Amino acid sequence: MYDLIPLGKRAKEAARILATASTSQKNKALLCVADALVSQMDGILTANRQDLDAGREAGLRPSLLDRLSLSEDRIRGMAEGVRKVAALPDPVGQQLEGKTLENGLKMTKIRVPMGVIGIIYEARPNVTSDAAALCIKAGNAVILRGGKEAFHSNLAICRVMRDAFQQAGLPQDCVQLIEDTSRETATAFMRLNGYLDVLIPRGGGGLIRSVVENATVPVIETGVGNCHVYVEHTADLHMATDIIFNAKTSRPSVCNAIETVLVDREIASQALPMIYEKLKEKSVEVRGCPETLQILPDAVPASEEDWGTEYLDYILSVKVVDGIDEAIDHITQYGSGHSECIVTSNYFAAQTFTDHVDAAAVYVNASTRFTDGEQLGMGAEIGISTQKLHARGPMGLPELTTCKFIIQGCGQIR
Amino acid sequence: MYDLIPLGKRAKEAARILATASTSQKNKALLCVADALVSQMDGILTANRQDLDAGREAGLRPSLLDRLSLSEDRIRGMAEGVRKVAALPDPVGQQLEGKTLENGLKMTKIRVPMGVIGIIYEARPNVTSDAAALCIKAGNAVILRGGKEAFHSNLAICRVMRDAFQQAGLPQDCVQLIEDTSRETATAFMRLNGYLDVLIPRGGGGLIRSVVENATVPVIETGVGNCHVYVEHTADLHMATDIIFNAKTSRPSVCNAIETVLVDREIASQALPMIYEKLKEKSVEVRGCPETLQILPDAVPASEEDWGTEYLDYILSVKVVDGIDEAIDHITQYGSGHSECIVTSNYFAAQTFTDHVDAAAVYVNASTRFTDGEQLGMGAEIGISTQKLHARGPMGLPELTTCKFIIQGCGQIR
User: What are the extents of the domains in chain A?
Assistant: First the structure.
């Protein structure tokens, strides 16, 4: 069996050095990585073709092959992503709190790196450089475990990064790839206590459930988004239609796209045909509750299962509700705590919704598609946390750090 | 088998109400709890006598019986603890960040309650009211699972609290006690995903390991402290002696007490006899490395196991080191990341130690015993986190909350 302990030990050693590396050292190394990704593009593309050939042979779906596929442009994009991370402010060393206690002790609470971060991800090879760059900028060593479909691409990208780090005077082992894509090794990775300070899964619901179920190291759950738009009866219906159209169709495969629309009964017969017409432009399948079907006879009947489903596709479930209380109850029952939106003109309705809906991002009159680190001005993100511990919503560099109390005295005892 | 789902559901319902309860409502309820603990003291003491009788019959150690035991004074202390929590500032609703984005979206990041917090703890019945008060002040419902030795005491305290909440207009189910102390139910509690937003174990190393190993809900690890004092060769030896004496003997059973002293070779023959003499006042057993034994022939030889042991007792291991690098390496290898101290007069030694030692609290010239929420001016604490995710060091009210992004627009789409 593949032994993860040596990787863990090397990562810890690298993390000790990275923890006190200066911002300019880390930036220099990241720029070196960006340059190397471009200058060594050919090797990466060759490795990628190997994965693509194997993928075609294994009968992978075209959408999966597309995610897997790299091109000159995509590699330039990856390099650009790494440069953007180098340009972000360094969170390490930031003073979060500071005071002098009554006994004269000087206490400061500062941001420090986590240590070693594990990332477990699926078919997109660009995650290899994106995630590693963020972890390293925040002073952490990273151990990557990518999907087997992208193995050769990941390995090639990882080698380029490791060489670039060494060239820039940082340890190669800042980034390590687990060179075994078996399920057993993935499970062992999730239980690498003593070496991993946090494990972040990036991928679909199945991967995330497996990590939550099996991990004994601390985990940040990311990504599942069963998001809603609630059209309250005072809503501007044109605005509601535009928001729903944008939130459903601008990129249905991502977690901040919506899956269900809730509409107040009072305006349902006016609002639903407008929304339905607009959604036809992108051939969205509407699955409705019985009342919706009375208004939109062409819609498909929704089953109980639909309310809990993240379609990630051109499908939308629609439910007529009695008012804001029923809308909030529905969201509480079925939502995944990612992004929720009310469209309303009523001050108190907006307040009730933002106060009572329990989600990472709660919107009034705007598309849920803004739940994204870049969009919210936080810079590149490593994922969107849907748990409440440590980080909630888009996670940028500060979310990849922890803190340390430094207490300076002159002999104080208790 | 005892079914935790109904408790989970009731807790979630209570949490929805608590999440938007005003500070004054919560404070009123907590003061009501404090009054009720005092006015219904007799019932609690009767229940406690039941536990003590059973404990004596089961042959519990005197120290355990002492922890279990309540008195009029101790109950008044518990009530006082609850009043102190009521007096702390409410973290809920605090704005953590706020800005207007280029597209006009107004984004604010605010503190909100976690939801439902689980606490799993051992023999001290005072944890029942202490932990519940903190959770509720931060707007969370709490589910408690105490040790079987304290079952009747916990149940009586919990009933008093539930009645007081109801009287004050908050749901009884803000606090629930799991009325089954079997191991199976404890494990099921650790896997109550969908109901528990976080689980905090409070107790010894065995309990914490069991939670880390078995839990599938997010966990905050607390409490194991293998702490060190390093006497650097420029240290004021009187100061070093006082700090070591205080950190070892003022309360050896707590996690911020030290277990090992590291001394620079250069000053060992002068420092060790001074430290040894002082420790004799409290009959501390010293377990030394071979060099220590040459200087202190009466000391006991330390085994490899000693360096990793949290004695929680009047025992101290002592090692002579070659200098600061060896000291930091030793701490990196054996420390639990809780509290570490250097005694020094050298500016650069102080900086090297605080930069390179990876622990929740790093001290220069002060006793590790200050790692405590009250001592650091954070108010009452629910525990001391030794993990890096979410919270590190003493955890007060803010650490029992999460955040939510509220994004207000006027029709923005992406």
Answer: 5-221+389-408, 227-374
